[in-house]
């Protein structure tokens, strides 16, 4: 691969649109749900599931449910994605408002305790 092609790939990676939004982790056997927000939904899935697998998630009730029921009992889902471009402050305000909305609507707990 030549240098120009490498530069093009690096530029495309930096310019990609990172998905922003609200996600959930649901324990199927109990019906419990935890809702979180993220500026990078792909990273949020990876981070949450990895910390649960390692037994080091900061939400004790979520970690306890994971330990009791196992990975197969949990479903990760994107609940809502941000489609429009907002300023960083606008994005944070949107995330916080939508997090509150989905916690109430789904009778869920926040992932961050």
From TrEMBL:
InterPro entries according to UniProt: GIY-YIG_endonuc_sf (IPR035901)
Protein name: GIY-YIG nuclease family protein
């Amino acid at each position: 691969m030549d240098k120009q092609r490498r530069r093009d790939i690096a530029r495309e990676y930096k310019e990609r649109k990172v998905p922003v939004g609200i996600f959930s982790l649901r324990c199927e056997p109990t019906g419990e749900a935890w809702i979180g927000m993220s500026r990078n939904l792909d990273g949020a899935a990876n981070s949450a599931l990895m910390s649960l697998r390692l037994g080091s998630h900061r939400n004790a009730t979520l970690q306890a449910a994971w330990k009791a029921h196992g990975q197969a009992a949990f479903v990760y889902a994107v609940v809502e994605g941000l489609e429009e471009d907002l300023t960083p402050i606008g994005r944070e305000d949107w995330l916080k408002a939508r997090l509150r909305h989905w916690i109430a609507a789904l009778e869920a707990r926040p992932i961050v305790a």
